[in-house]
Amino acid sequence: MTMTDTSKNAHELTSILDLCREVIPYLDGKIEKNSPSPLSQQINNKWLIGHAQDYLTIQALRDDLTKQHPNAGDDYLKARTWHLLCWQPIYITFISIYGLQRLPDFTGFKQQRQHNAIVGFIFQRDELTAGSTEQLIPLAAIQLKVLFEHYRTQFDSLERCRPGYAGRFIADLILGNLLKVKEINPNFNDQSVLSDAALWLNSMDLPEKLINSLTIKENQPINFIRTSCCLADKINKKLCTDCPKAHKNSNR
Question: Which residues contact 184 (CB under 8 A, 6 or more apart)?
Fold first, then answer.
């Protein structure tokens, strides 16, 4: 495991940003190295910048979600807000590790709020770590735990968002992304999913039992049932295929 050469850092981080856009066009990032702009220094409700005032951005996000879905209910709004706070860092990390065997430095990482969504981000540093998946996952977890705990405490200052609740959503994002890796990488099989899932959960200090969301039955592909519920049925009247409520209904 090594840090990449300084001369290559910007190029390799640009490759990560390009791959992020290729996978998800909304995952649109920039580099703002060593020269924070007035925009990034300004305390407003359009950026999550890692400061104590991030609750203003989270409150504005939730307010815009409420305007969009006034009848969805507080539980949906809470779940949607937390998902939006976490989705970009996890997707960026997975694309970097599983796509390019690199891990970016999330120090000074910023996320952009665009009305009722979190889309767009800025890296302040271009340092990268190269290594195997097994080496990079624990290092990624160190950074993500700090970032997500900051978001959680900021959100918790507005409404109750306890570690157990937040952790279930994070675990489901991780496990769901492992299945996406399996879909595009023929060498990443069911056992690879389970092995990496265990390493991710342990590294993120998430309950070991959450791996039971993944099940393998003979002659069937690995199956995933979430432990968190996004409550999307409050909006579109349909349950997600991996929804725990759908699974309970099918077992009745």
Answer: none
Query: pLDDT tens digit string along 6-16?
Result: 447 788 999 99
Bridge-based pairing state of the strands 117-123 and 29-31: parallel
Which has the closest alpha carbon to 10: 132, 125, 88? 125
As to burial, measured by CB atoms within 10 angstroms (0-12 exposed, 13-18 middle, 19+ buried), residue 66 is middle
Tokens in use for 93?
């990390």
The string of DSSP codes covering 45-63 is: SSEE-SSTTHHHHHHHHHH
Rounded distance between C-alpha atoms, residue 167 and residue 171, angstroms: 6
Give ∠ CA 197-3-195 in degrees, rounded to 5: 10
Helix (H) or strand (E) holding 86: helix 74-100
Q: Are 109 and 147 in contact (CB under 8 A)?
A: yes
What is the spatial distance between Cα 199 and Cα 205, in angstroms, rounded to a whole number?
A: 10
Question: What pLDDT, in 10s, does the model give residues 64-114?
Answer: 999 999 999 999 999 999 999 999 999 999 999 999 999 999 999 999 999
Residue 213 pairs in a beta bridge with none
Q: How far apart are CA 158 and CA 113, in angstroms?
A: 17
- Is the per-residue pLDDT at 203 higher than 60? yes
Predicted model pTM: 0.92
SS3 assignment, position 125: coil
